[in-house]
Amino acid sequence: MPGFEIFGDEERRQVQDVLDTGVLFRYGFDAARKGHWKAKTFESEFAARLGAAHCHLCSSGSAALNVALAACGVGYGDEVVVPPFTFVATVEAVLLAGAVPVFAEIDETLCLDPRAVEQVLTPRTRAVIPVHMCGSMARIDALVDLCRRHRLVLIEDACQAVGGTFQGRALGTFGSMGCFSFDSVKTITCGEGGAVVTGHADLYRLAHQFSDHGHDHAQADRGAEGHPVLGMNCRISELNAAVGLAQLRKLDGILARQRETKQALKDALAACPAVTWRQVPDPEGDSATFLSFLLPDEERARRAAANLAAAGVDSCFFWYDNNWHYLRRWDHFRTLQSPARLPQTTLPNFAGLQEARVPVSDGIIGRTISMQIKLSWSDTDIASRGERMAAVLAKI
To answer: Looking at domain 252-393, does it have CATH number 3.40.50.300?
Structure first.
């Protein structure tokens, strides 16, 4: 995920447009901004690219998750099925909505296993949040079918999968809402930013209102606007949107380079007998932000991660020990330690969070290594990296 690797004249021009007007706020000041609407333009172009009816840009991917849950009416006492392998923001958003996260097992897609999701459903289940981890997709067709049959809200966390598709359709457009991140290390970046997309006008309206203190955005004068819902401030600035707009227009080239790099590295490791590849339901739609592979057991995965680092192969992650992305190290969720007094401890189903165990996922993540794909690597860098990786992994 390149993010800051590709800042250039395009980003500088877009930011300078904003600075020249002096209007950094995304709303109003129509005359002063001289026709420059960076957030609105980003939203229009991103929605068109994804084939989504509506897009709302907000301050972060984490904010996008909070907005989507609020717009979809998920709240106190609801259960929301989530994977144990994700970024912590997915679970934080559920907890801050007053709901209870319920962890279902992943499979070797590294995403939610639809069969495991079905096993954890209860009468309190309100929503499912599949996370398209490390650039590739969950079995989203099966998850859509499951949510339809059980009348559940499907919210896609596509924060790590901008530009990914499944059977030609953009990830993030299968559920009621899709969430994206544009932070500094995502495929494209605003510095800080995120977005929600949806095909439902009512959900878009609620998301837009909730993101801006409940403003209805029906008047030219913000002071005259109504406040039909309770909301908060999840707004993005025009400066952040300007950076993202330039990056969005580079997305095709980014994806092509990532895919080319990933294939070259896979080819370099083809003769390593201990390596098996992450399952990708639709290889054509992989955004290729990571090269993810599995070793036969945890001991060899740990040894491989250490030996790759010693060989100078950086940007490799052994997720099982990672405290940002895997449940095993998330004790603050199990104990609900927070400076705020959150209400979930009064719920009888809260004990399920404290006792969450995912042995199948442990067995998968304990064998998995992912290497981040970078745009800054030259062809020579890629070839050298492939040779070093092959030398290490052939001996595992």
So the answer is: no
Instruction: With CA atoms as reference, report the closest residue to 14 among 200, 288, 243, 335.
Output: 243
Question: Quick check: helix, strand or coil at residue 364?
Answer: helix
Give the DSSP letter string of 137-195. Answer: ---HHHHHHHHHHHT-EEEEE-TT-TT-EETTEETTSSSSEEEEE-BTTSSS--BS-EE
Return d(Cα 278, Cα 310) in angstroms, integer.
24
Q: Above 70 in pLDDT, residue 306? A: yes
Record the tokens describing residue 158, joined without a space: 């596509």
- pLDDT interval class at 354 (50, 70, 90): confident
Are the C-beta atoms of 58 and 125 separated by less than 8 Å?
A: no
Domain segments of the chain as ranges: 3-251, 252-393
Give 82's strand partners: 103
**Of 364, 383, 151, nearest to 267 (Cα)?**
383
Per-residue pLDDT, averaged over 326-335, amounts to 85
Look at the alpha carbons of 201, 202, 207, 208 in this order and tell me if their dihedral is positive or negative.
Answer: positive
* Residues sharing a CB contact under 8 Å with residue 12, sequence separation 6 or more, in sequence order: none
Q: At what angle do helices 9-21 and 238-248 cross, to 10 degrees?
A: 150
List the catalytic residues.
Answer: 186
User: What pLDDT band is residue 1 in, cutting at 50, 70 and 90?
Assistant: low
Return the SS3 of 330. Answer: coil
Beta bridge partners of 372: 290
**208/214 Cα distance (integer angstroms):** 8
Three-class secondary structure of residue 85 per DSSP: strand
Range 121-145 average pLDDT: 98
Check whether 301 has a pLDDT greater than 70.
Answer: yes
| Residues 334 and 354: beta-carbon distance below 8 Å | yes
Q: Which pLDDT score is estimated for 158? A: 98
Per-chain mean pLDDT for the chain: 95
Question: pLDDT category, 360, cuts 50, 70, 90?
Answer: very high
CATH 3.40.190.290 fits 3-251, yes or no: no
Q: In 3D, which of 98, 70, 72, 94 has the Cα closest to residue 83?
A: 94
